[in-house]
Amino acid sequence: MNLALAPVVDDDFEAMLALRIEALRESLERLGRFNPDVARARLRAQFRPEWMRHLVRDGERVGYFTVEPREGELRLQHLYLTPAAQGQGIGAWVMDHVKARGLPISLAALRESRANDFYRRHGFRVVEEQELDIEYRWEPAP
Fold first, then answer.
1. pTM score > 0.85 for this model?
2. What positions does the domain N-acetyltransferase occupy (predicted)?
3. What are the boundaries of each domain within the chain?
4. Shortest CA distance to 46 belongs to which of 3, 77, 9?
5. pLDDT in tens, 106-128
């Protein structure tokens, strides 16, 4: 498997929205909260190509992630993979890439999403439970 990162440009919005919807649909439907219009508005509000990278496997885009730099830490805003690309080590590869920056990382995961198990396996600890999301934090070793 050949993994690479590719830059995001403004024209990528629609393709990234489709990928986000595909990745989140099952979890959101289970919670009765699937709404394509809300998905579009949320991605539009957080669409910052300079913080985003496509995940490319063997020449095909299979996901993307967004890392927002904050003072003294990073915020992982998005990590979405197509369902066909999940469970193949791509998410772990991203975690290694982001953790290599050596800064604390915060993120939120949708309740009842399989992502919660993924983040816990990668050393994130729960810092707050909200109605729809669970907030996590990872700290680098001193």
1. yes
2. 3-142
3. 3-138
4. 77
5. 999 988 888 999 999 999 999 99
